[in-house]
Amino acid sequence: MKRNQFFKFVFMVLTLFASVNWLYAEENTEAARVKLLLNHIDDMWRGKSSYAVTTMQVKTQHYTRTMKMEGWSKGKEQTLFRIIEPLREKGTTTLKSGNNIYTYLPKTDRTIKLTSGMMMGSWMGSHLTNDDLVKEARLEEDYDVTIRFEGERDGQNIIEFLLIPKTDAAVVWSKLILIILADSHIPVVEYYYDEDMQLARTISFTDVELLGGRERPSVLRVVPADKPDEYTVFIYEQLQFDIAISDSLFSLSSLKKR
Amino acid sequence: MNLNTLAWRNLWRHKRRTLITASSIAFGVLLAVTFTGAGDYFYTRMIDAGANMGMGHITLTAPDYNRAPSSKKYIKQTTDLKHKMMEQRDVKGVLARIHGQAMFASARKSVGGIFIAIDPQQEDANNNLFLKAMIAGGMLTKNSDKGILLGADLARKLKLDLGNKVVYTTTDKNGEIVSAIARVTGLFQTGAIEIDGAMAVLPLQAAQEILGYQSDEVSLLAVTLSDQRNSYLLRDQLQKMAAFKNVEVLNWQQTQPELAGMIAIDKSSNYISQLLIAMLVAAGILNTMLMSVLERKREFGVMMALGMSPRNLFLLVMFESFWLAVLGLIIGVIVTTPWYVFMTNTGIDLSAAYGEGFSFGGVLLDPVFKIRLFKESIVAILIGLFGLALLAGAYPAWRAGRVAPVESLKAL
Amino acid sequence: MKIITFASRNIYRSGHRSIVTIVAMAFACAMMIIFAALMEGFVAGSEHNIVSMNVGDIQIHRQGYRDDPDIYNSITDSQSLAISIRNEGFNASERQFAFGLLASGQSSAGVQLRGIDLKYESTVTQIDQHLMLGTWLDVAELHGVVIGKKLARLLDVSLGDELIFVGQTADGFMANDAFHVRGILKTVSASIDNAGVFMSDVMLRELIALPNDAHEMVIMRTDRTRDLVMATEQLATLASDGLEVMSWHQLMPVISRFMETAQVQTFIMLLFTYIAVASVVLNAMLMSVFERIKEFGIMKAMGMRPWQIVQLIYAETMIQTMLASVIGLIIGGTMSWHLQLYGIDMSSIAEGISFAGIALDPIWYARLSTESLFTPVLFLFVIAAIAVIYPAAKVALIRPLAAIHHR
What we know:
The complex is a heterotrimer. By secondary structure, chain A is an alpha+beta fold. Chain A has five helices and 13 strands. Helices cover about 25% and strands about 45% of the residues of chain A. In chain A, a hairpin with a 5-residue loop joins strand 10 and strand 11. By secondary structure, chain B is of the alpha+beta class. Chain B folds into two domains: about 200 residues, no CATH class; about 180 residues, no CATH class. Chain B has 15 helices and 14 strands. In chain B, helix 2 packs antiparallel against helix 10, helix 2 packs across helix 12 and helix 2 runs antiparallel to helix 14. Chain C has a six-stranded mixed β-barrel with strand order 2-3-8-5-7-6. In chain C, strands 11-14 form a two-stranded antiparallel sheet. In chain C, a hairpin with a 4-residue loop joins strand 2 and strand 3. The longest helix of chain C is centred in the N-terminal third of the chain and has 40 residues. The two termini of chain C are about 30 Å apart. At the A-B interface, helix 2 of A face strand 2, strand 6 and strand 7 of B.
């Protein structure tokens, strides 16, 4: 009798352990999966290094313009991009190295160091801010992510993520909703909300193409919620990954090279 | 015969004349007390308010910080400096502060401004103007808070309210761009739009973290004194001490030159006004004394004939001036005291006329008109009064001494 | 006429006494004149500072610009508006503004560029004379800029140093150019000191691609006595819809209120002075009558009627006062005139002073006007007349014997 009970007890404990373990593993799996997905998404435009040629179109109430630029990146910290068109701004080059940002202005042949004063201003007249470009936050670092919905919507199999910024994250948004395609993990649309939970802007990803060896959206469209007639569109013309770039490219001296 | 007693009695031979002249002296005393007292009170308030607004009566900074401020210039090992400061005589408090420029951003907008980082446990509404001017929310409670106080207009521009988050971006000590997030815990409204629309208050620790400072490194130490007039002397003393050789020691005149200039001008115009009135009172005394001498020519003639020396006559008239001044002073004190008591304690509230938020030389003005006299000022007024009376009496006294007995006896 | 002759002779006879009385009154009169002129000069000077340094009498903006200084919130067709305003008998000048970043070798700051119409600006403000260092703008040197005092300190620059501006044009491009410091201003206002960068409007228009419009129109009355409120209304009818026309009182209500209070303050100061003067005059007049009470007693004994005595005393008083006021006017008027031209230089005491965010000229000028000259004189007469009522009445009514024995 006693032995029986003892064994029963041990069995219960073991089962309990096993089930807890299993639950934990399940959660772990969930979190791990989300992490994996996010990294996958972040990596869509990253690699150990990259080279891209993009066209940007901006339409606002007061002007419409188009710009073409090329950019290099190595890792997360180093970025260099240079404007190719229009002629008026050709040669304007921005270097980001860690938390330092420099811009070379060909018109005056001067390099200035960007300070906080410029950060929240719009970048090149677009609907993105200097901050957006500098931050390029890995979603995973600054946000707590959960999956809000998985399944079919409008004829597509999607996964919908809810991103809530972590307490100490220096982001102005209070909520992001990111929708990706379930199978290819290609982003479809990203919604940005302010603190009153009002939609502040929408970034949509379209025109999936083979870029740099992978299927990626080649067009990004940023639309401010309060001015839906305006937009900023980025079109990836060229994109190459993991090419050999030397560190010397990300130096002040290379800023001036045309 | 005691010259003094004689002088006193002489005065009372012409009661009316004496009283009128004494009254004009009394009036002069009243004006002097009012003008000087208003100045003493006003300037001290302004200087103290200016000190509380950021820099203290004496400021310790990194070299050259005052001329061209930057987050690259900061003072280290401030705990030692603080202790050393508190040992000095007359020091009421030493506050560590960090100042810097930043961009404040919400999801809707971004605005450039300035932040002041303070230690919430060391500062309260009594020594900090922003805390005093809070209109909503509460003060930062701990140094480790991730809170921020915004000027009411700044919050409005950013479309933020209590509890919302704001991202601030600044340049750290190495020149790199850094950002951090904070929640709006309170709003302040001083009434001056250049403050309410561009300034924010952060906890010291948050600023140190974002700028890369150690926990005892700050932009400046603001030292408040119990009597602002000691700031010059103390600054000079500190500059000579070895403990302070790595820092720049400035007093409020150097850190707030606008305020200093404004006070200097106001003081000068105050002095000019008082000078004019003093001259009028002196004229009155002169008039009285001269008249009284001229009409007593015969009397003096007789006295001299009886053996009184010219010198004694001179002294006699001088004493008369002196007693006249004393009389005037007594009446003056009687009249002025209730006025002074009222003005020192209650004062006249001018906020209906001036409204809130009026800045003077960059410092906010509290529109209540009060008086207060420093001991030194009282002494100065007394010396001025007697000096004036004696000076005014000198010429008539001299005239009295010059009378030739025979001549005067001839005059009828 | 007999009375007047009599009075004059009495005055002459009293000699010293008369002189002392007259001098005392003249002195008091001169003091009052100088003081009144200084006070008036202070008030006028303050208004002048506010108005002529930067703000002007009246300003025009597009509605909403002051709350949200967006580059697109401009006054369209500003040039023709300016011309029609000038035709109405005003001076007008246009200004354009833009915001951006200004970088020096050491640091950078957010600034407000101010495009100035160099042809007309000096007709509306005197900022071109308000330089601490260097020289004012010149169309010949478009890349020379004049910056605010505190901005120069913040950027750690001095004359000749280079500044790079980065901002955005009206058509969405990046605006950037290199400038150098041509001048540094003295204190003007808090915002200009901290962030003001002045350049020729030709340069700014090109820099931010704003060829036609303006953001602010500054207007001055050519005739300063013209009523400001009426002038503002007149211009409001000229300006089209969507523009707001405001006088400096409306633009800066705090200062406007202060100016009003300042006038009250100066009036109180004058009042105090006058009271002090009154006591001197009272003293003098009283003594001058009572000292001669014996004489008057004899006159009465000899048959002079009370009314005649009063007349005599008044005649003496008025003659003395007249002499005193002439002397007072000459001395006071001359000194005030000198102070009006040269002023009292306070700049050794105060380098640059501001008041409710507005700069003040450290030279204190007096201002002569019919008021500052003649009110004191009038006052003197009034006081003297009041002062002798008591003694005149007493003397007139006293019994001759009592008078002769009076002490």
